[in-house]
Amino acid sequence: MLVGLAWLAGLGAAEARRNYGFARNPNFEPATSIPRLRTSSRGNAAKTLPRSFDWRNIDGVNYAVADVQQHAPVYCGSCWVHAVVAMLNDRLKIARRAAFPDVMLARQVLINCAPKSTNGSLNVGFNGCDGGDERDIYVALLQRENWLPDETCQPYEARNRSCDALHTCTNCMPTDDGGSNCFEVPAFTTYGISSWRAITTPQMGAAEREAAIQEEIFAAGPVVCNFAAIPEFDENYTAVAQQHGGVYRTAANVTSDDINHDIVLAGWGITQGGVKFWVGRNSWGTFWGDNGWFRIERGVNALLIEGACTSAVPTFDALDDELDGAQGGGPLGLAQISPKGERWSHRPGRSSMPPFLAKAHATDLLLQLGEGGQAPPKLGSASLMPSLVALALALALAVSAYAAGAAAARRHVRLDGRAESDGARASLLSGAMGAH
Ligand SMILES: *[C@@H]1O[C@H](CO)[C@@H](O)[C@H](O)[C@H]1NC(C)=O
Ligand SMILES: *[C@@H]1O[C@H](CO)[C@@H](O)[C@H](O)[C@H]1NC(C)=O
Ligand SMILES: *[C@@H]1O[C@H](CO)[C@@H](O)[C@H](O)[C@H]1NC(C)=O
Ligand SMILES: *[C@@H]1O[C@H](CO)[C@@H](O)[C@H](O)[C@H]1NC(C)=O
């Protein structure tokens, strides 16, 4: 905490140039004419776009894979890797209709084998923690089909490592003298992309850009966008958003030279006060912003967030093979099941929600149980009762312990727009102008 405060206090002019890991590759031709998504039956998709949309809650199902963060255990400018990986993770989940498993692609492998920012070929000697251009990752994923493993092959270290077999997929075994022997795993489930595209360009009009991003998110999943993360966004996101119905707004003037970050947009909405916003995913930990996510004003290219967005289509044939029993694995990696061996699909069988959970919100059930520890009536078969009660009591204990500890820290970001006022906006604007 003290170190953190000292760090904040020490922020100076150089601070404005902090780079979270975006380094533009000038060799990419600027995207010019970009075909809009159209569906033959519905015409322009923009006409059918809902008022609000969020991949974290589509009819109760969350398609956003878990959050991670880029800056620990050491500072690493890997936003470009994080944004691409988050976009692909979620698109995999969407394409697979949230079926098991959630896939988290290996960020560290992209850092180790960072595509060189001069010609898109795989590294050697380029350091992924120094930042890069997300388009180089797409090019590299297309060049070498299906080579990216998931996180279980290579945990995130936030360090530049070499690009070799050991630093692509590793396993370790204990040695007799209590040490650890690590070795490369030669075969593992791999992922790739089949295509990528630019969605917006800085030259497009504001309305056209906004619609193009919405259509892409709606039709295909989250997108990666370049972003000028000013210090106020980093350090005071929540305070500023609270003045605007839970949406970050700024009048800061930024140029393309200020672009220092890549983020993911995964939805949009509008507050009751009428502020249109994007739903964005950051890679700075769940302790930052809205559980690691953020809402930012939509349609005004705030901090250039709408100016250069891209996306890619993930491929997962190897996962299908594995789930269908073509391959099996051990500590030395995956192996083809011998032709004589019988295959066993290990896709999970479909099952139903336990009836008591399907009927009530789990929290309602816990509240009932919390008062005197009485089980709610009609829990189904009597033989099931003892274990259900034990489970529910354990959950209730955990919830009350959490509530006691966390109540004081809860934030109440109002989304009804009532906090929005000309006065608040004026003071925000003068603050932003003062800072820049
Ligand atoms: C890319 O650049 C690296 C380093 O300059 C070079 O070794 C490599 O051959 C280049 N690759 C292509 C495809 O031009
Ligand atoms: C990565 O390598 C660059 C260049 O050598 C260096 O400046 C940077 O500190 C390294 N970062 C990490 C986290 O290893
Ligand atoms: C964040 O807010 C605090 C309190 O209003 C202010 O002192 C500080 O300058 C702000 N920092 C930035 C980077 O905007
Ligand atoms: C942003 O730049 C424009 C054009 O240079 C200028 O008119 C405007 O006052 C600037 N706004 C702020 C908040 O600095």
Summary?
The protein has 436 residues and is α+β, with helices and mostly antiparallel strands.
Task: Describe the model.
The chain has 436 residues and is an alpha+beta fold. The chain has helices at 2-9, 79-95, 107-112, 134-143, 206-220, 231-242, 317-323, 355-359, 362-370, 385-406, 422-435; strands at residues 38-39, 43-44, 53-54, 170-174, 180-184, 192-198, 223-227, 261-270, 276-281, 293-297, 309-315, 327-330, 333-336. Helix 9 (362-370) packs across helix 10. The chain is globular and about 65 Å long. The structure holds 2-acetamido-2-deoxy-beta-D-glucopyranose (NAG) (4 copies). One 2-acetamido-2-deoxy-beta-D-glucopyranose binds next to loops. The chain crosses the membrane at residues 384-409.
Please specify the SSE layout and strand pairing.
Blueprint (H helix, E strand, L loop, with lengths): L1 H8 L28 E2 L3 E2 L8 E2 L24 H17 L11 H6 L21 H10 L26 E5 L5 E5 L7 E7 L7 H15 L2 E5 L3 H12 L18 E10 L5 E6 L11 E5 L11 E7 L1 H7 L3 E4 L2 E4 L18 H5 L2 H9 L14 H22 L15 H14 L1
Antiparallel strand pairs: 1-2, 3-8, 4-5, 6-11, 7-8, 7-11, 8-9, 9-10, 12-13
Helix pairs in contact: 9-10
The structure holds 2-acetamido-2-deoxy-beta-D-glucopyranose (4 copies).
The site of one 2-acetamido-2-deoxy-beta-D-glucopyranose has 3 residues, from loops.
